[in-house]
């Protein structure tokens, strides 16, 4: 009695770059083996950006947004655009080590 069923197992993770990191922890005893899989996704410091579009009504303007994959795995994004008059591909693939431009288009129908 008075014993806890849990044991603290502190882990320190200090990534140097953005990306997807995998870790496997194997705990063994004479009568048991436990495997824990850990995945950490690290974003760049400046993940937020702001774009300003200026164009006459009925004329489209496209901004190429660079997406750089510095991780060790290919990325596949699904794009969900919010706001009227914005258009872009519904998905984009960014291979390891490459930069792919996402074309975001704004085409207003009124001033």
TrEMBL record:
GO terms for cellular component: cilium. This is CFA47 protein. The lineage of its organism: Eukaryota, Metazoa, Chordata, Craniata, Vertebrata. GO terms for biological process: sperm axoneme assembly. It comes from Erythrocercus mccallii. Transmembrane segments: none annotated.
